[in-house]
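worker-03 picked up job from queue 'complexes'. Input manifest follows; two sequence lines, order preserved.
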Amino acid sequence: DGGITQSPKYLFRKEGQNVTLSCEQNLNHDAMYWYRQDPGQGLRLIYYSQIVNDFQKGDIAEGYSVSREKKESFPLTVTSAQKNPTAFYLCASGRQAFDEQYFGPGTRLTVT
Amino acid sequence: KNEVEQSPQNLTAQEGEFITINCSYSVGISALHWLQQHPGGGIVSLFMLSSGKKKHGRLIATINIQEKHSSLHITASHPRDSAVYICAVLGGGADGLTFGKGTHLIIQP
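worker-03 finished. Artifact:
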């Protein structure tokens, strides 16, 4: 049963703490992406990776970091430097860069 | 940078009605995506198209490259079609997809 999983679905953290969001895919896709969604706004690209051990900043990378050590996994760390971390985070993957994308269920992060 | 505008922002219709959601963009693109987001937040890719028309079940997507415009149509709408429909474009100088803000559709029984 192929797909993309994100965990956890809901995450609560105190301000000043780093937090890592998980994204795993078993679709054998080369490309993976992290997006942020805020109420009333379109999705915005945080980071993307076209291949293992390589990734590029998207439009709003400040305060975030990623790694791509395995093809299946693309974790996102929200650091304490991110000024407004509370948001809905979506991970996606695709066969190649910017081909049709398949989305995970998302993680809703609340930082207080 | 590409500007992606969707209309309407909100749409409420009765079951069975024909639905049209529009998307326009400002800069030439290589492809356009239509996505569906349900209340739980998960997103499903409906179509990716670069020209002409695609059909899947009761859903039809069209694109006019010259006019920089795409439409998503739903025939015989049903309450389960209630969701946010998002248009996203690829190309036009941006890294990755540029997303519209979405159209919130409610189909009443």
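worker-03 released lock.
Chain B has a mean pLDDT of 93.
Chain B touches chain A through 23 residues (CB under 8 Å).
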